[in-house]
Each structure stands twice: as C-alpha cells, then as structure tokens.
TrEMBL record:
It is an enzyme of class 1 (oxidoreductase). One of its GO terms (cellular component) is plasma membrane. InterPro entries: COX15/CtaA_fam, HemeA_Synthase_type2. It catalyses: Fe(II)-heme o + 2 A + H2O = Fe(II)-heme a + 2 AH2. It comes from Sphingopyxis panaciterrulae. This is Heme A synthase.
Length: 343
C-alpha cells in the first residue's frame, strides 16, 4: 500500500467506525422507547456500572431485586401485587437499555484508545473524538439522574430529566454523524477542512430541538394518550382541559393537553424548516442528502399521526421515536453537506 493510499484509508476507517457507533446509538434510542412505553425504567433501582452488567442469575437474586422494586412508589401505587414473572419482563427492557448504553461507550472508547495509541487520528480530531466518548459517560450519569427522580416521591421519572437524557443521546448521534462525514471528506481530500455551521443551519437546529423537546415531554407525561383523533383533539382544535391556573409557563412545560397540542403542530414548523433545507441542498448539488431527508420527514409525520390515531400503539410509537433519531442523523448529514467548504 502506498503512503498516499494509506493516508486516505485511515480517516475512511475512522468514519466507518463512527457510523457503526451511530447505529448503536439509534438502537439504544429504540430500546429506550420500549422501556418507556412498557413502564420498565424504574425496575432497576440501583446504578452499578460494573456489577450491573449481569442480570440476576438465581431465584434468590431475582427475589432480592423484586424486593428492592417493591420499596418504590411505582410498585406501591401502580403495580401492587405484580407477579415475579411480570417484574422479570420489565426488568429485561431496562437491563437491555443499560447494557446497550455500556456497549456504545465501549464501542467508542476502546477503538479510540487504540487509534490514539497507533497515532492514526488525524490532527485536530483527537479532542473531538474524546469529547464524544466523554459525552457517553455523561449520558450514563444523566440516565441514572433520570431514574433517581422516580424512586422516592414519584411514580415515574421527571419528564424534564427524561428530555435531557434523550436530547443528549440525539446530540451524541448528531456529533457522530457530523464527525464521520468530516473524516470521509478527509479521506477523499487530505486538505479538506471540517464543515461549518451556517446561520440557516443554526435556525434549523433550534426549530428541530424544540420539536424533539416537546416529543420527549409528551412521552414523559404520557401526553400522547390525552387525544386519539387527528387533526382535532377530542373534537376541538385547541383541546379542552388545559390547566392555566398555574400560569402560561407552568402550562407550557407541564400540562399534557397543551404539550401534546404544541408537539403535533410545531411538527409542521419543523417539517417546513427541513423542506427549505432540502431545497437549499438540492440547489447546491446535495440531491442524495435532500432526498433522504424528505423521505425521513414524510415517514416521521405519518408515524406521528399514526401514533395518535392508534391510541399510542406501542410498536408504532417506538418506530416514531426511532425514525425521530434517524431524522436527527439525516439532518446532521444534510447540514454537513450544506456547510462543506468546497460546496
């Protein structure tokens, strides 16, 4: 292999590695959605990063875990009398979610240490890759912070902490995609500079982040269940039942009727912003990214409506969350294409 070919193969390999980690993050988001919809998130009441890798391996160990679960409000107020078999079912999803989170960390950190040791990380990328690895560790801490909110006074987790947990995962996903594409450019041209964020890109990010935040709050407050009709909400455009007694800010951040309403209609603002992004991409030669983005947006809108009219069918709702993650990845790729210095 010539030196030139070898120099190109290194960033190309790093790019493929980051795409693989990005797929793992999407898998974690999928299992996280199942965990939420099956009300499994509080089934493991302790955070043991090392010993928690293994599930209970004996009947006595299972009973001990079940006894810990029986001490929290969710069991006493909602699941009183739950069988051990039912507990094992919810325990599985939370355990799998945590295992996949650890796997993401290992898949990012172990190869990164190896690549750094071999000195094959291109100049200027080491800090970014280690920042992404650190973000995985932070995400684990945020996950426990979220779970802890539901162990003493509540029967579920704080929707604010749930939103932080989900948005951090999606930020990690976007960072992986952006960096993978930067490295792919470097593989094609060793002189290529990283893509930049344009003013329009920042606007798209803000609009999409608001929609993702509203989606996380909708999930955290079970707000999807307050109406199963579309486009009206229980025969009204603006739903009845919004509690304004605590003021507008309290309603916007905590009322399930209002949050559901905002989530379903802010979606069209986000869709318009992404449509304009796709048009800008198409005009600048990014037809592939534009086409992918449009397809994912259309699928996400359809799944959002389907989630509502099916009364939050679990698998449709999970698919809605997964495609939401794919939409973040597609948007990151599209914004990267728009911000290329050679574009």
């Amino acid at each position: 292999m010539t030196q030139a070919v070898f120099a190109k193969s290194r960033p190309a390999a790093l790019s493929r590695w980051l795409w693989a980690v990005a797929l793992l993050v999407i898998a974690v988001v999928a299992v996280g959605g199942i965990t939420r919809l099956t009300e499994s998130g509080l089934s493991i009441t302790e955070w043991d990063p090392v010993t928690g890798v293994l599930p209970p391996l004996s009947e006595a160990a299972w009973l001990a875990e079940f006894e810990k679960y029986k001490q929290i409000p969710e069991y006493r107020e909602i699941n009183l009398g739950m069988s051990l078999a039912a507990f094992k079912a919810i325990f599985f999803w939370e355990w799998l979610h945590r295992i996949l989170g650890r796997l993401v960390g290992l898949a990012l950190l172990v190869p990164l240490v190896f690549y750094a040791w071999r000195r094959v990380v291109p100049a200027g990328y080491g800090w970014r890759l280690f920042a992404l690895a650190a973000l995985v560790g932070l995400q684990g801490a945020i996950g426990w912070w979220m779970v802890a909110s539901g162990l003493t006074q509540r029967t579920d987790v704080s929707h604010f902490r749930l939103a932080t947990h989900l948005l951090t995962a999606l930020f990690l996903l976007a960072g992986l995609v952006w960096t993978a594409r930067d490295l792919a450019m470097l593989a094609q041209n060793p002189a290529a500079r990283p893509a930049r964020l344009t003013g329009g890109a920042v606007a798209v990010i803000v609009i999409l982040t608001v929609q993702l935040l509203l989606g996380a709050w909708t999930a955290g407050l079970n707000a999807g269940y307050v109406a199963s009709t579309w486009p009206s909400m229980n025969d009204h455009f603006v739903p009845k039942g919004i509690d304004w007694s605590g003021g507008a800010w309290m309603a916007i951040t905590k009322d399930p009727f209002l949050i559901h309403f905002l989530h379903r209609w802010w979606a069209w603002v986000a869709a318009l912003a992404l449509l304009l992004l796709a048009r800008a991409l198409w005009r600048r030669g990014g037809q592939r990214e534009a086409a992918v983005l449009l397809l994912v947006v259309a699928a996400q809108v359809a799944l959002g409506i389907a989630t509502v009219v099916t009364g939050v069918s679990m698998w449709i709702a999970v698919l809605h969350q997964v495609v939401g993650a794919v939409l973040v990845a597609a948007t990151a790729a599209a914004l990267h294409r728009l911000g290329r210095r050679d574009a």
